[in-house]
Design a protein that fits this description.
By secondary structure, this protein is α/β, with parallel strands linked by helices. It folds into two domains: about 80 residues, Orthogonal Bundle (Methyltransferase, Methionine Synthase (B12-binding Domains), Chain A, domain 1); about 120 residues, Rossmann fold (3-Layer(aba) Sandwich), CATH 3.40.50.280. It is built from nine helices and five strands, in the order H-H-H-H-E-H-E-H-E-H-E-H-E-H. The chain has a five-stranded parallel β-sheet, with helices on both faces. Strand 1, helix 5 and strand 2 form a beta-alpha-beta unit. It starts with a helix and ends with a helix.
């Protein structure tokens, strides 16, 4: 059961209520990252409802759209919150997967925390990941995946990065990612929540 009103509102797809609560919380001085956390809790709940068959794809997409609308309001506040430059991070959704909502939220939070993010977009080939890591000399690469069928593409990409002799840490994220998936694909870190991505980046960069 969700106790946070904002998390509950987004899980229940209450678009108007979400917009009002976001504005209220900003006005009362709640940290933008905390507001994002609440929204993510609600999105995770919507994801669970989808998996259990209570929600269909339409509801899931609507939840994502409400989240994006909220992020339009929150992004300028996140970016303004911590402006010093900490380093380069490469991000992308793996080959065969075109979902980018989760990735976009992580990218925005990382930028807000002072990282320079090279966002490769969706359906990214292993070659493209490798080229971007070489060009930017990034010590961290983030890969997002939503479709279980794209897990092998993620594994292939990580193997190719290692084979190219690149000593970059690999962070994977997605709604079904866990330690088993992390071990299977050979990643260094895994994250379910977007805020975990920032915590892991801060560990790696010693920020």
């Amino acid at each position: 059961m969700l106790t946070d009103l904002l998390a509950k509102a987004i899980a229940d797809l209450e678009e108007q209520q979400v917009a009002e609560l976001v504005k209220e919380r900003i006005a009362s001085g709640v940290a933008p990252l905390e507001i994002v956390n609440s929204l993510q809790q609600g999105m995770a709940e919507a994801g669970s409802r989808f998996e259990s068959g209570e929600y269909f794809l339409g509801e899931l997409i609507m939840c994502g759209e409400i989240m994006q609308d909220s992020m339009v309001v929150l992004e300028p506040l996140l970016i303004g919150s911590n402006a010093e430059y900490k380093g380069n991070i490469v991000m992308g959704t793996v080959k065969g997967d075109i979902h980018d909502l989760g990735k976009n939220i992580v990218v925005m939070l990382l930028k807000g925390s002072g990282y320079n993010v090279i966002d490769l977009g969706v359906d990214v080939s292993k070659e493209k990941f490798i080229d971007a890591i070489k060009e930017s000399n990034a010590p961290l690469v983030g890969m997002s995946v939503l479709l279980t069928g794209c897990q092998e593409a993620m594994k292939d990409t990580i193997e190719a990065i290692r084979a190219a002799g690149l000593n970059t840490k690999v962070l994977i994220g997605g709604n079904y990612i866990d330690d088993l998936v992390k071990a299977h694909v050979g990643a260094d870190y895994s994250a379910q929540a977007a805020t975990d991505g920032v915590k892991i980046a801060d560990q790696i960069f010693g920020a």
